[in-house]
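Researcher: I need the complex structure. Ligand is magnesium ion. Inputs:
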Amino acid sequence: MANIKFNRPEILFPCFAQLTSLSGIGPKIAGMMAKRIGHAIIDLAFYFPISIIDRSACPDIDKIIDGEIVTISVTVLTVNIPVGKQKRPARIITENHSGRIEIVYFRAKSDYLKSLYKVGSQIIISGKVDFFNNKKQMTHPDYVVTSAQSEIIPKIEPIYPLSSSLRQNLIRKSSLMALSKIPKLPEWLDDSLIASQNWPDFKTALIRCHMPKSAEDLDLSSNHRRRLAFDELFANQLALCLIRNKQSNSEPVTPITGNENFIKRFISSLPFSLTASQRRVVVEISEDQKDTCRMLRLLQGDVGSGKTLVALIAMLRAITSGKQAALLAPTELLSKQHYQNFLQLLTGFNIQPVLLIGSMTQKQKKEIHEDLSSGVIKLIIGTHALLTEDTEFFNLGLAVVDEQHRFGVKQRYILSQKGGGCDVLIMTATPIPRTLAMTAYGDLKISQLDEKPAGRVEIKTASFQIDKIGEVVERLSKAINSGSRAYWICPLIEESDKIDIAAVQDRLEMLEQLMPEARPVLAHGKMKSDERDKAMQAFKSGESQLLVATTIVEVGVDIPEASIIIIEHAERFGLAQLHQLRGRVGRGNLHSACLLLYQSPLSHVAKSRLDILKQTNDGFLIAEEDLRLRGPGEVLGQRQSGVPEFRLANLSIHFDLLEIARKEASKLINEDPLLTTRKGKACRMLFGLFEQDIAIRYLNSG
Ligand code: ADP
Ligand code: MG
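Model: Output:
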C-alpha cells in the first residue's frame, strides 16, 4: 500500500503565523505569551476565556448593591484632581436622576483625567461599585466613554486566565485579531453527526468561545465546546487509526511459532501452575506471534499478577524459532532482578540470559554488542542502554518493554524499528483507565491479566497520623520479632537531594535504635549501585528484616517474603503510586499489611486517596478513581507516558465523544485509507490544527 505523506495544507499557513504578525504584539509581549499561550495564531485561538464580566446591568444608582458591576450614564458634578506631588486620590463626583456616585483614582495622570472628566458633561461609566461610608464609589472605572461612544463598552466581557504581566484587554483584542486570520475551513465532519449533535462549524465554535454571550457559553458541555473537543479527539483517533493501518500493512514478518514442546516443558517445570488469565494471555500473544503482521500489544496486569512470566514464555517462543528476544526494564535494579529471575527459571533449558546495563565497563558492553549482532546472544535483558544506536541485533524477534509508563511513545517506535521491525510487547502494572488506553494506546492491542495467582491474600491497609509513629514502630517490632520482613518508605520531596537523603538516613538511624534486631538497611537512588545491591541482597536473603528506602522500590521489586510496608507522608503520593508501593507486599502467600502514615491536616483529595486505598485492592478501580481525582494528565505522568495532552478536550467531561470519535475515525479510514476524497482531504486539516507530531512523523517515515 502506498504511504500517506502529511504536509501542512497551505490553507492552514495563516494559523501558524507567529503571534508577532498581529499588530500590537511585539517580541516582548510575544515572549510573555509564549510561556502560557504559545507562539502561533492558532495557539491564541485555542486559548479560551474562563469567565466573564457581565456589564449588562444598568440599574438606578439607589438600587445598586455593594460590589455590583454596572454600566451607567451620569453627569460630571465636580472634578477634584491632585496637583503636583500631592499624594491624595483624585475624586470626581457624578450623578443622575437616581443618585450620586463618586469616582476615585489612586494613581492616574492628571492630564488624562482632565480630558476625561469635564464638569457638566454626560458620560457612561462601567465598573464595580463599592459602598464606602454609605457613599457609592467606583474606583478606577473599567470604561469611561461619552454618550456617543456607548457601543465601545461590551455587555459581556471575557476574562482569560492570565498572569498579571499580560493585560486582559490586550489578549481580548489579540484573540479577535487571531480569529480573523483563521480561514473558513472545509467541513471535515459528517453532516449527520453535526445535525444530531447540533454543532456549529469549527470557526463559529471558536468565535463563540472567545465571544461568550453568557456564562453558559463557557461551559465545557456547551455545543460549541463539545464540537471543538470532538475535533481534537477525532484528530487523535484518526492518527491512531492510520498508525494501526500502517502497522498491519507493513512488510510481513516471518511468523514465530516456537517449539511447542519446549514451551510445554518449561511451563511444567514451574513450581506453580499458570493462572487462567495467564493461560489466556499466553495464547493471545502466541496468536500475534504466529501472524505475519507485527505484534504491538500491551499487557496490563495489576502488580503481582505474573506478567513477567507471560513475557518470558513469549520470549522463549521467539528464541525457539531461532530469533533473539530482548527485555527492557526501566531501572538497573529491575533489570538485574529480571536477569536473576530468568537465570533461575531457565536452569536446565540451555538458554543463557545476558544482562546489559549502563554501569558496565565499555569493554563488557562492547563484547555484548558483538555477541548481539552476531546472534550468539539469544536472550538479553537491559535498560535504555539497549536502545542506543550501537546496539545492533542479529535478528530480534521480540522486544518486551517492562513498565511502559516510564517509556514514551517515541521509545516504543524506536524499539519497534530495531531488527527491521520486530514484535513488541509492552507490560504495564499501572492499570490504565479505558479512556486513557484509547487515546494513549489506541494503536495497540490490549491483553489483560485480571486475576492474581491463587493463594494471594488481600493486603490489609490502615492509616495513621504521623504522631502515632510510636505505636506503628511497636507493632512493627512485634512482627519483626516473629520473623516478618518490612519496607519503610520515605518520599523524596525537597528540591535538594541532600535534604531528602538526610531524611531517609535519619529514619534509618531512628529505626536502628528502636529495633536493632531488624538489622535495617538503606536503599535510595543516590547510593552507589553496588552498595544498594548489597542492601537489597541483605533484605532479600532475610539477613536484614527491614529495608528503609525511597520510592526506588516502587516498580516491580519482587521479594515475596516481605509482608509489611510502611509509607511515610502517604499524603504526598499519588494514588497509582501508593498502589504500586503497596504492591511490593502481598506477593507471596503471607498475610500482608500496608500502613500509611500521614501528616495532618489532610487535604480533601489526599483524604479521598487514602480512603480509596483502604477500601480496595483493585488496581483498575484505583486507576479510575485516580483519573477522577487528578485528571488524565497526572495519572500516567503525561509527558513520559505519551498520553496526548489535549488542549480543548477534557476527558472527564467529554469521554462520550471519544467513543464517537473512534467509530467515526475507523469508518473514515475504512472507506478512504489514504485520505484522498474530498472529506478525507478536509480531515487532513485536523492533523495540522492539532499537530499530532509523533503520529505524523511515524506515518511519514519509511
Ligand atoms: P508482575 O510483573 O505482574 O508484577 P511478576 O511476574 O513479577 O508479577 O510475578 C510476581 C510473583 O508471582 C513472582 O514471584 C512470580 O514468580 C510469581 N508468579 C507468577 N505467576 C504465578 C502463578 N501462576 N502462580 C503463583 N505464582 C506466580
Ligand atoms: Mg513486574
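Model: Summary of the prediction. Confidence is low (pLDDT under 50) at residues 632-643.
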